[in-house]
Input
Amino acid sequence: MAEKAVFYHAGCSVCVDAERQFVAALDGARYKVEIVHLGEDKSRLGEAEAAGVKSVPAFVIGGAVYHINHGADLSALR
Output
């Protein structure tokens, strides 16, 4: 069974590029990736914060947060 990975982003150019590069690079047999656009679904901001996400784009895999570059702080999305 594939491990869940959540990719949080806000739709900015940094986020879109990270989505193209990193989501596509993950082995689909190992990871089932859920893409969450926090700019469009603000109801998931609390979930991202609780997982430890400070800025987007970021992955949460196995309870660990991996921040990629820096597109926007979560506080800017409120």
Notes: The helical segments are 13-25, 45-51. DSSP finds two helices and four strands in the chain. The first helix runs from residue 13 to 25. The first strand starts at residue 3 and ends at 9.
